[in-house]
Amino acid sequence: MTPLTSFVFDKTDGRPYRIEDRTMNTPLNSRLLALCICGILTACGGSSTTPVPATTASVDVQKPAALLSGEALRAEVERFRSSNNFPAVTVTIINQDKVENVVTGNREANTNKSVQSTDLFQLGSLTKAATATMIGRLVEQKKIRWDSTIAEIFPAWRTQIRPEYMNVTVEQLLRHRSGLPREADDNTILKALPLLTGDLVSDRRSLAVLLLQDAPEYTPNSKMVYSNIGYALAGLMAEVAGADTYENLMQKEVFAALNIKGRFGFPEDLGVNNNIGHTLVTGNWKATSSVVDPRYAFFINAAGGMNLNLSDYGAFLREHLRGLQGQSNYLSPASFQLMHTSVDGYGLGWGISSFPGLGNISAHNGTELTYYATNRVVPSKNVAVAVACNCYDAAVIGKLDEFADSLLRPLLPQ
Predict the structure, then answer these.
(1) Architecture of the domain spanning 2-122+259-293+307-411
(2) Cα separation of 103 and 80, whole Å?
(3) Are 107 and 90 in contact (CB under 8 A)?
(4) CATH fit for domain 132-251, picks 3.40.50.1360, 3.40.1280.10, 3.40.710.10, 3.90.700.10
(5) 271, 291, 354, 370 - which has most CB atoms within 10 Å?
C-alpha cells in the first residue's frame, strides 16, 4: 500500500472552510500513482530553496503511446462512473495537442437530467495554477514582479501588519512559503464581520489585514505549508497591479485570452439546468448546496473558486504543455518554466514529482466539498489528463485519482 497525499478541502475542527492534508491508503496500480500527487507534501518539512529543474523545451518530446480515445475512451469513462455509482464524471485528455473530452452521467443523481459537455464543474484548488498563470501575464506586462513584496504593493499596511510579512513575495505566496496558515479561523472571521461593507475588493483587504496581524505559523520562506490564505493574498496583490478585481483579471488574462468560458462560485448558482454538486448521505449521493461559509468564500476565489467545463480546462492544460516546450505565445517559456519548477515539491499551483523515463510531472487536485477534480501533466510526452465529478466524499475520491492514473498507464516505461 502506498500513501497518496492529497489536498482536499475539509470542514473540521470548527473551522468554516479548511484545507487538510489527508493521506489515503490506495492500491498501487502502477508507480505513476506514487508520483502524481504524493510528492506535493512529503517534503513539507524541508527548508531547501534550491529549485529542482522542470522539464524544459530542450527535452526531446517523444510521441507517447496511444492513450484511449473515441468510443473506447467514452466506454471506459462510463464503465468507471457506473461501476462506482458517481452522478457524473468528465475526463479530458490532451495527447500531442489534441484535446478530447468525455462526460457521462447526470447533473443530479437519480434523475434523467443528463450532464452536458458544456456543463461547468467546480474545480477547487485547480484554480491555483490558473491564478499563478494570470499573475504571470501581469508580470510580463511589467505590472508586478514575482519578487514584489506585500509591503511594496500595500505600503499603507506597514503600520498595520506583522513585520515578518513585509518582505513576503508574490512567488512565496504562490509556493505556499509565506508563513501563513491554511485558513482563517472563526475568531478572525467574526472580527472581520463588522468591517465588511459589501465592496468585494475593500472587504478582502480588510480580512487580509486582520490575518496578517497574527504571528506567522513558521518563518516565511523556511518551508512549504499549504495555504489558501497565501493564494488569496496573491490575488489581492494582482488586483492592485492590474487595477481590477481578481475575477475580472481572470476573465481577461486567462478565460478570454485562451478563448474559454469560466466563472467563480458554483455551477448551480446559475439556476436551473446546470450541474449540481453532491455529497454521500447514508450511502447515496444527494444533491447538496454549497457548504462553504459565505463569510469567507468571497475571500478565497483565487485559491479555489474556478468553474470550467473540462474541455475548456483542457485548453488551459494544453497551453501549459505548449509553453513548457517553447511553443506558446501566451506566456514566455521562462514563465511556464517557473510555474513548473519545484521548491520542496511545489511549483506555482502545481505539485511537482520526477519519474524515471517521464521526467517531471505536475499534478494537483481540489474540492470545495461537493465537487472533486484532479489532473496530471506530463510535459516530456506532451500529454495531460484531468478528471472531475459533481460529487465529493473523503472515502471515495481516491477512486478518481486511481482512474486518472490508469488513463496514463501506456506512458509508463515497460
Answers:
(1) 3-Layer(aba) Sandwich (3.40)
(2) 12
(3) no
(4) 3.40.710.10
(5) 370
